[in-house]
Design brief:
Order of helices and strands: HHHH
Number of strands: 0
Distance between the termini: 32 Å
Number of helices: 4
Shape: flat
Structural class: mainly alpha
Oligomer: single chain
Strand content: under 5%
Length: 72
């Protein structure tokens, strides 16, 4: 904390980016992944159907359902 409080223009943190693995590679689209893995297409279709039928839970619902006992 003492170090942070003594920061000034010459003694500070700056943000920079170093290109590395993952940043220069072509991102694989979901469509390409589904074409390569037929079982993934089935999982996505089932998930969409469950969503339409309102069988899933939203993030808010999941968070509300958690209790301290879940982390013991």
């Amino acid at each position: 904390m003492e170090y942070i409080s003594s920061m000034d223009r010459e003694n500070s943190v700056c943000r920079f980016n170093i290109p590395g693995k993952g940043q220069e590679e072509e991102e694989t689209s979901i469509k390409k992944e589904v074409e390569a893995k037929p079982e993934l297409k089935k999982v996505i279709q089932e998930s969409r159907e469950e969503y339409r039928q309102r069988l899933g839970m939203s993030t808010s619902d999941v968070l509300k359902s958690l209790s301290p006992k879940d982390f013991e």
